[in-house]
Specification:
Length: about 575
C-alpha cells in the first residue's frame, strides 16, 4: 500500500499543473461520492434483501395457509361423507338394505345431500365413494373421467384413516387442472376394508393459491412428508417426483439451481417452497447499481469539466505571464497592449508585469545611451588630450627650420610625425578607410624606427578589394605598438596582412618577438588607461577592443595568440560593411 502511495506522490510531483488540478479536483469530488455510494449500497442491499425476504416469506405463509384451508375443507367434507356423518350412515343403510324402494329413496337422499354439500362448499370439486377392490365409484358429484386414477396419485401426506394427494390432474371430466384430493376410509360393517370417500378441491383451486402470490415473481414447489416434489412450477429445474436436496443450506432458505429458495413447513409435515430466480432476486439491487453507475459517470464528467474550466482559468493567465517573461528574456521590450483575462487578480498582476517591462525597457535604453555617450566621450578625450593645432603648427615650424639648416633626417622625422598627428588628432570623425589606416601606421613605423635603437622590418600586404572599406580610426596603431613593446629585438620583423574572407575583414599582425603569457594577454585586454601610458600615446589594446565593441557589437572579435620565444599574432575580424553601424 505504501509503495502505491509513494508511486502516486512521485507522479504528482512530476505531473503538470493541469494534471494536478484535475487529479485533486476529481479526487475531492469522487472519493466522498464513492464512499457514500458504498455505504448506501450496503444499506440498500440490506434493506432490499430484508424487504424482499419478508415479502417472500409473507407470501409463502399465505400459500401455506391457503393449502391448509383447502386440506381442512377436504377433511371436513370427507368427514361428512364418512360413516360418522349423516350421508355415511345412509350409505351404510343403502348397502345393507334389500328393499328396492328403500334403496331408491336412500339413493335420492344421498344424491341430494351430496349436491347440497357441493353447493355449500364452492372450494370442493369432485366427491364420490370409491371401492378399491372393485375399482368402482358411486354417488359422484360430477362426471368422472373414464381413465380416472386414484391409487397412483402423488401422496402429499398421510394420517390415520386419511391420505392427501397432489397436486395432481383432476379425475373430473373436462377438468385438466391441478387439484388436491383426500381419500378417507369409510367404516362399513359389511365391507370394512373396501369403501373410501374421495374428495377433490375445486376447479383451478391449487393454481389460484400460487397465482395470488406472484407479486414477487416467485415459483412454488410442494413437498410431501419425505421431501419428494409433489408439485413444481418449474419442472425443467425441479422435476416432479424428484427429492428436493437442500445440502449446503442452513435453516429454511438457500440457493440451488440458480434460485433462491425459502421453505415453510406445515404442522402435518408437508412443506411449500418459494423459488425466486437469482436475477429476479437481484433485479432491484441491480437497478439501483445501474442508476449509481450512471450517476457516477455523470459526477465524473461534471468533475472533469469543472477541472478543465478551472485549468483554463489558470492556464490562460500563465500563458500570458510566460509570453511576457519570454519577451523580457529576449530583450523584446516593445510596449504592447495587454490582453484582459477578466479575472481581477490576474489582470492586476499582468498590468504590474507590463509596468515592470516598460520600466526595464526604459532603463535598458537609458543605459545604452549612457554607455554610448561614455564611449564617445572617452574617445574624444583621447583624441583631444593634445591640442592638434598647436602641435601641428609647432611641427611645421620645426620642419622649415630643418629644411633651412639642411637637416634631412630631422625633416623626415618631423614630416612623418606631423602626418601621423594630423591623422590621429584631426577632427575627421571616428571612421576611416583601410587605405588611410595603413598609411597612418606607415608614418608611425617610420617614427618608431628612429626612436628604437635596433633595426626591425615591417612587411605589409593588403588586398586591393578592401582598401576602400570603412573601419574605425586608430585601431591598427595600438596593435603595432603592442608588437614593438613586447619583446621585438634586432632582426625582428612585423608582418601585417589585410584580406577579406566569407564576408569578413581579416587583419592579422604577426611579430617574431619574445611572446607574451596568457596573464599578460588578459591584462592587455582589460587593464586601465593609466597603466597603458608606458608606451606610445598610451591608448593600448583595451581601446581597440572597446572601439570594435562600440562600433560592431558582437559582430567583431579581437584575439591574441602568443607563444613564449616564438612570437605573437593579433587577429582582428570585422564585418565587411559599406557603412559602419554607429557611424
Amino acid at each position: 500500500m505504501s509503495a502505491k502511495l509513494k508511486l502516486i506522490m512521485n507522479y504528482l510531483q512530476q505531473a503538470t499543473m493541469k494534471k494536478r488540478i484535475m487529479f485533486i479536483f476529481a479526487s475531492a469530488t469522487l472519493i466522498p461520492f464513492i464512499c457514500v455510494v458504498l455505504l448506501s449500497y450496503h444499506t440498500m442491499s440490506s434493506i432490499l434483501a430484508g424487504n424482499l425476504e419478508s415479502s417472500v416469506r409473507s407470501n409463502l405463509k399465505q400459500a401455506e395457509l391457503s393449502l391448509e384451508r383447502t386440506i381442512s375443507n377436504l377433511n371436513h367434507v370427507s368427514q361428512q361423507l364418512a360413516l360418522q356423518g349423516s350421508i355415511g350412515k345412509k350409505v351404510d343403510l343403502l348397502l345393507s338394505s334389500d328393499k328396492q324402494f328403500e334403496r331408491a329413496v336412500l339413493t335420492e337422499e344421498i344424491n341430494t345431500e351430496i349436491n347440497l354439500i357441493s353447493f355449500t362448499n364452492p372450494t370442493i370439486g369432485l366427491m364420490m365413494y370409491y371401492s378399491k377392490v372393485k375399482g368402482t365409484y358411486m354417488f359422484n358429484s360430477t362426471i368422472v373421467k373414464e381413465d380416472y386414477e386414484i391409487t397412483g396419485l402423488p401422496l402429499l401426506a398421510e394420517y390415520f384413516r386419511i391420505s392427501y394427494f397432489g397436486p395432481h390432474i383432476s379425475n373430473e371430466r373436462y377438468n385438466d387442472e391441478y387439484v388436491i384430493s383426500a381419500l378417507r376410509k369409510v367404516d362399513l360393517p359389511g365391507d370394512p376394508d373396501d369403501m373410501y370417500v374421495y374428495v377433490e378441491s375445486g376447479f383451478k383451486m391449487t393454481p389460484s393459491i400460487f397465482e395470488d402470490n406472484q407479486e414477487d415473481a416467485s415459483y412454488y414447489l410442494i413437498l410431501d412428508n419425505d421431501k419428494r416434489i409433489a408439485y413444481s412450477d418449474v419442472p425443467e429445474d425441479f422435476a416432479m417426483d424428484d427429492y428436493f436436496a437442500d445440502s449446503g443450506s442452513s435453516g429454511d432458505a438457500g440457493l440451488q439451481n440458480g434460485y433462491y429458495w425459502f421453505e415453510s413447513t406445515s404442522n402435518q409435515g408437508w412443506s411449500v417452497i418459494s423459488l425466486i430466480p437469482v436475477n429476479e432476486y437481484n433485479q432491484q439491487k441491480n437497478r439501483w447499481v445501474i442508476q449509481m453507475i450512471y450517476l457516477f459517470l455523470l459526477f465524473l464528467a461534471v468533475s472533469l469539466l469543472i477541472a478543465w474550466f478551472l485549468w483554463k482559468m489558470v492556464y490562460v493567465p500563465l500563458q500570458q505571464f510566460n509570453h511576457q517573461i519570454k519577451s523580457i528574456a529576449q530583450r523584446n521590450t516593445a510596449v504592447t497592449e495587454v490582453t484582459r483575462i477578466k479575472i481581477p487578480e490576474f489582470d492586476f498582476l499582468l498590468k504590474q508585469l507590463q509596468n515592470m517591462k516598460n520600466q526595464i525597457a526604459e532603463l535598458i535604453q537609458e543605459v545604452e545611451v549612457k554607455e554610448k555617450g561614455r564611449a564617445d566621450l572617452e574617445v574624444e578625450k583621447l583624441l583631444y588630450q593634445i591640442n592638434p593645432h598647436f602641435l601641428m603648427n609647432t611641427l611645421d615650424t620645426v620642419h622649415w627650420l630643418a629644411v633651412m639648416n639642411g637637416q634631412k633626417d630631422i625633416d623626415k622625422l618631423v614630416v612623418s610625425l606631423n602626418k601621423l598627428l594630423y591623422y590621429n588628432l584631426g577632427k575627421r570623425g571616428l571612421v576611416s578607410t583601410i587605405r588611410e589606416e595603413i598609411d597612418s601606421i606607415r608614418q608611425y613605423l617610420t617614427l618608431q624606427q628612429v626612436r628604437y635603437d635596433f633595426g626591425f622590418d615591417v612587411r605589409i600586404h593588403v588586398d586591393d578589394d578592401v582598401l576602400e572599406l570603412p573601419i574605425p580610426r586608430f585601431i591598427l596603431q595600438p596593435v603595432l605598438e603592442n608588437s614593438l613593446y613586447h619583446g621585438l629585438h634586432d632582426e625582428g620583423y612585423i608582418q601585417v596582412e589585410v584580406g577579406k574572407e566569407e564576408g569578413q575583414i581579416i587583419i592579422s599582425v604577426y611579430d617574431n618577438g619574445a611572446g607574451i603569457s596568457a596573464e599578460e594577454i588578459a591584462k592587455l585586454l582589460h587593464q586601465q588607461q593609466v597603466e597603458q601610458q608606458k608606451a606610445g600615446m598610451g591608448i593600448g589594446m583595451s581601446y581597440v577592443k572597446r572601439m570594435i565593441e562600440n562600433q560592431y557589437g558582437g559582430l567583431a572579435s579581437l584575439e591574441i595568440h602568443s607563444e613564449l620565444g616564438q612570437g605573437t599574432t593579433v587577429f582582428l575580424k570585422l564585418p565587411s560593411m559599406e557603412v559602419l553601424p554607429n557611424d
